[in-house]
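Technical note accompanying the year-one report. For the benefit of new consortium partners, we illustrate the data format agreed upon in the data management plan: each record pairs a sequence with a structure-token string. No post-processing was applied to the example shown here.
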Amino acid sequence: MEKILDIITEKMQQAFSAAGYDAAFGRVTVSNRPDLCEYQCNGALAAAKQYKCAPIQIAKAVAEQLEKGDYDLCEAVMPGFINLKLSGAFLANYLEQMRTEEDFGVEKIGAGKTIVVDYGGANVAKPLHIGHLRPAIIGETLKRLYKFLGYNAIGDVHLGDWGLQMGLIIAELHEREPELPYFDEGFTGEYPEEAPFTVTDLEEIYPTASAKKADPEFSHKAHQATLELQQGRRGYRALWQHIMKVSVADLKKNYDNLDVHFEKWLGESDADPYIPAMVEDMKNRGIAVQSEGAWVIPVAEEGDKKEMPPCILVKSDGSAIYATTDLATLVQRMQDWNPEKVLYVTDKRQNLHFEQVFRAARKAGIVKPETELEHVGFGTMNGKDGKPFKTRDGGVLRLEQLIADMTDFVRTKVVENQIVAENEVEETTAKIAMAALKYGDLSNQPTKDYNFDMERFAAFEGNTGPYILYTIVRIKSILSRYGAWENLPIQEPANPFAKELMIAITKLGPTLESALRASAPNLICAYIYELAGCVNKFYHETRILSEEDETLKAGYIALVGLAKNVLEQCIHILGFSAPEKM
């Protein structure tokens, strides 16, 4: 269904035309003076120059042409503004359409289009840490937003599973257990089905091996193992498959706990087969040129305001790097899905890398000219003191520990305040903790750094996830006490607080589209905070369940029921859900 601003703009344009003026002057905007009106049109001021008459004269003529039943206020004021307040009937009709249409009538602007969202960025054989929080929840939210707006959205975790870390693990295992069949080049039998290590073992093996990189002998072994793995050595491929199986199972468990789910679990290894042909093609066509023994793609463009280094395709030692893999991954994605857009969610410190890769991909014709490539670079999550988030001993905090800490903190509040019965504590706690964690992050602009403050994020008042949940639970309680409410129609607003709530609900579609255009989940957070505020103001200023007029009461119930549904849809996009009690 049309957005409310588009509807009243179209009506305003018709009024300009009916009054004898160019319809293009009839653009309506949300009022910047909400104390005076809800919407306004300033077109008469611009039209006055063309028609050589006073703006107020044009404004009055246009206002006369507007359908008065649509507005409680429709007036021309000096020097030539047209101020509008929507009528209760207009709002009721619009919200009733939202209530009855699928997905609140929000336009499916992405219908028939495919987008790949590259987020997560986990490395196998390593536990997820707090640095993985932002790409996971920002990427998941953007993917869910694209899906809600009609896109075929494909989330790809893009695992780091093919580089030196694999060689380091293999080299360390060889030193520890050289008798394993994987290291016997003459072994022709079947390798064991069970891995010779657990995920806990890997979490100790990798950092131990990594610490040995300064040792020239061990470093050579690790690089040689990496090369032989990538060239297909049978025993190393079998070990790699064990590493993948053990690691990915653990990663999926941790992402599931965060309610983050990927459609594709592809990695650097999946792109590797595309590299040789891609590199050869770029060399043959002169896209890649030699520079100090390496093959590079010059990507500087006329008009660049700062230096743009070339994109390195193949290093002087013949090895590929991240840019090579990212370009090959684009080759694969265009071949498999032919998306209209590819969106990457990573640390903002990778801005230059992705600018180089995007330019190289366009120069090489890997993507079509109209294919959109975007990098959402996020800021750093710092501790409460504004410094990089660390454990007490100075290490990097594991993501599962962060979730456990938030859950323990919330559980204490739930138990102390006796919010729910004992048998409901764990489920309720988990939902509140997830809302606190995700909303606390997502309510910040993605590109900005922010300070993680558990006490503030878990507060039940203020701009927090628990406050949003509390509002939803309050509405659920009202609806439960009322009884069957789902089919009650929306009525005209009975008071100013009802009208304010109705106008807030109408902003759903425009907000979601704005959040998508800006890749900014914080806009959704700001919207539901405003909407929750309107719900609570309406609740405090209106007798809902105690209203004696049953018709009026039904209208109140229908309105808060619609508000609840909108809030629940928004928090689903943000990746959390509300408990039944709170």
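Partners are asked to follow this layout when depositing records. Residues 88 and 492 are 5 Å apart (CA to CA).
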